[in-house]
Records
---
Amino acid sequence: MTQPPPQVSAQTTWMLAVRDQRDRDAFAALFDHFAPRLKGFIMRSGTGSGQAEEIVQEVMLTVWRKAGQFDPARAQVSAWVYQIARNRQIDVIRKENRPLPEELGEAPEAEPDASQVLALEQEAAQLQQALARLKPDQREIIERAYLGELTHQEISTQTGLPLGTIKSRIRLGLERLRHELKELR
Amino acid sequence: MTAITHHVPDALLAAYATGNLPEAYALVVAAHISLCLECRAAYEAHQVGGGAVLETVGAEAVSEDLKSNVLDLLDAPYRPQPTYPRAGVYPGPVMEALKGKPPSWKSVGLGVRQSILSSGRDGSVRLLYIPPGQAMPDHSHNGLELTLVLQGSFSDSTGQFGVGDLEVADHDLEHTPTADPGAPCICLAATDAPLRFRSLVPRLLQPLFRI
């Protein structure tokens, strides 16, 4: 029996349809998936339901407006959305402007390398399983870190998530992008 | 450009990626990532952890009209946030802190100049300009100090730091960074407390210069 070729996730497919075709149905599917998760995530830090929904609205609009920056060879959709959500939370709740690194300048590859995208998705899925397998108190620490509730000192004593192979995958994606940028110049 | 050899330690990078760092330190880390592909990869990897938490932390039903509100707003005009590209030796996040203008240098003596980018309860961050061969006033600090080299280089008891290198110093380290010969050294430096200078005169001047 032949296995069907592995496919990229529905979320990545929707996100690329939003990025490349400005597909509103795909955006609606992303909304259905992420809006309730975002609301739950934001309320975990003590934000009320009304303000949480205002933040969810801003995050989802940013997903639509900044879709051109999404690069599946470097980021999984949920990681990209997480980053947008934390930026927005910091702006709204701490009333600070979060300093962010420079964007890389050029648009991501139009035709991403499917094997790189798949490999990154598999790593991310394994990480999610590793998180689920942690003891509840350990998982709680990781969740609180990602919710922005720990100081730098508290983070330096926590047991980290296994990010090593993900790092090297993302580095590959970045190096390919940098190589392409050089060719363009 | 020589290769970057002093990177952001992983716990600090994790604190930045998860939005746990005060703004002064976050600016230095964002500036380093702008110059360093290796730390950018590590930063984006930490976001994958954030994605995993977002997927698993538990959903809350949203109001019925939230989706239609958002869909109605997709085509609404909006004002994009201004972006600040790198200018000369200053990475984008530094240009943003400078609001796109060149630094306004103030002399602090011995040829050293500073330009304060922000100073508040949670820390301060400034640009420092140190002439070649000049030592920073002898100092120790109350807390964490991050120093990113943007031009030239400096050396102290822990090693040499060139463009893109980040020095992480805590209260245990008593050090005297000295700018190397060549171009003046320009650094981006963040502290969570005013620097304590050892010699008398700089200490008297501290309130005046906010150092």
Note: Chain B touches chain A through 62 residues (CB under 8 Å).
---
Amino acid sequence: MSHWEAQYQRSKNAATLDDDEADEPMPDIDLEELPGYQTPLQQLTRHWMNERHAPDILPAQDVLLGSILDHLRRQSETIQLLRGDPSTSEEDHMRIMLAQTEVERVKFIVRSYVRTRLFKIEKYARHIIANEEVQTRITAAERDYASRHAHLLDRHFHSSVLQGLPESQTALDDSPKLIMPPMVTEPETTRPVFAHALKNTIARTHRGKVADMSRGSLMLLPFSAVTDQIANGEVELV
Amino acid sequence: MNEARQYGELATQLVTESRRSTQTDTLLKYNDSLVRSIIREQRDLEKVADVLVLATVNSANPPPQLMIIQTAIARNKRCLLAYHNHRIQFLCTLYWSLGASLPPLLSAETTSIRAKLSPHEVDYLRSYHTSVMTFRAEFSHELDITASIVQPPKELHVLVNVVRDCGVIQTESGTIDFRMGHRFMVRRSDIEHLIVQGYLEEV
């Protein structure tokens, strides 16, 4: 291959790199034209917003997150390779910088998404380890983190308060529930959220009321009324 | 027990301290003596309750006095736990805002924070840090999840002033010796933690 051809090849690489970055599907299937199709990044952004607005932990998106993380890693490797190559042209450097900036911005969303979940996991750690249904919604790493965190808190309360108390009071949970709120923090699932319907759907509140949600409508509803709709993508939180 | 004091008065003082800490957004010194006196009060209350239980073991209804004492016990205990929990929450928020690193919290230089902690809290922070680092390792090939999530990055590079000497740092474009008073154009992700910890300042 002549030098010129190599150069051409590389600019083509750089061009596809940009395309990948925008997360556009390959041109052979015209997915963009399909209504409701979303690129992985758009999907992640939606899950990120849902997670930030929901009082409870939403189902983990490990497949999506995994593919985005793989993509990020490959992208960073390509960038490193092209940057180190002395024959990369000025114009390509400009492209690389754009790709790099985009990588940083995607990382920001991933980080914020992961940290939002981590925050909830810390808050509801004891609730999570006692509740198997919640455990199905989180990843293995998150599950480990929850049990570590609950254990840490228990130990701290025990060593700084409970071990000094008389024996009958050393349990962390209080039995007179009538006069005390429970010790275990649980997600407040009736908290109102702004739900934006992506498809025509129906929301049912716990009191048995039914609300028709037509596509594009925006409603203020208790979170528990739209939990399933969020999970199957009919509704997003805004 | 001091007869002039109402049940639960000390616990109220303790909770007031937490409230003050929230309102001024500062961490107050760990009030060891107050915590100890409340624990003492709990033991005294328990003794009184035991005597009452033994004295009325045959009667059908528990005496009203016992109900009051038990309520006081439960309340004191909850106040103690709330106080400790509040402090832990505060410390964790501080920990994350410093870019998930322990040295700024626990090093001897910044005595202001360390001196306010109880030994148990120092232990807690250490184990918490270990736990967070284990979780971070899950993502170590792609990104650092403990980096800042306050502002989405707009540009790759950032112009910084060096506020405090922080020695030689590895960056993407080689090593840079950050000396006080100098100004550098560097890649944000390389030095973001130094901005968070107050070594560098964005221009």
Note: Chain B has a mean pLDDT of 85.
